[in-house]
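User: quick one, fold this
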Amino acid sequence: MDKLNIEEDEPIEHVFITKAISNAQSKVEGYHFDIRKHVLEYDDVMEKQRSIIYGRRREILGDGVHELILEMCDGIVDRMMDQHCEDKYADQWDVQGFNRAFEGVFAKVLNEKWYEEELKADEHAEKFYGWIEDLYKEKIDFFRKVAEFNFEPAVSDEDRKEVLNQMILDLERQVLLKVNDNLWKDHLLSMDHLREGIGLVGYAQKKPLDEYRKQAFAMFSDLMNRIDLEAISTFYKLTIAHPLAEAEAPPIQQDMEFIHGEVEAPAEEKVKKKKPQPVRAQPTIGRNQPCPCGSGKKYKKCCALAKKIA
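Assistant:
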């Protein structure tokens, strides 16, 4: 401005300068728009995952928790069948691996030789669905019996039934919500790490956004499988360490006799309850009086001194 001798308050109206400023401004705005658009495309991936997780939480907080648990169990059994029993013939199935996986989730296998029945894989899966429902009812009955022991006799049957149903519903919700939320938080951290390093795939002539979507989908699918597996495993293995609150037994009172010195224990017929004896006051002896032992010395220089030394 000083070289051109232009005043500070004088407007610049040259066509070249106006056009250059306009081009620079459009480039900067377009650059920032692309950045925001790019960020929104990444955020859309997380938004879809977040909506699915929150939908699962709403299902857990609803009244259909029982149906949700059985649905999750069916999905786990289907994945086990696909992993261990994908071959066409039964003699090629990994039966031991399936039994270990089933027991690891549902705590036990009702029949370890289920493969001896000549059934197809789909028919075996239907039988496993029945096993799961039986194990679920067995677990619910266990919780009901434990709760029944802690009810007071004055509680009516209707109140007991209502309280038991609510307790079981709350228990199922707590297990599912805890597993769902903990694994979701870990997944968010993993997604942040993926987002930070996904730009490096550009050196391999790949689009970072496409690779981000692929890896995010794979990670989210694994997340849902782990939520189902850990939640169902926790529920079916859930137990109570101390089902009954037992009252402490009162201490047994016994007659005791203190015996000084190393002597033989008295016989049982000699150990009897003794009557309390009256305590007789002994006459006090002055320090300067003659000692009662007959030594002729003063008491303070004879027996009193011996007692102090002892």
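User: anything notable?
Assistant: The mean pLDDT is 79.
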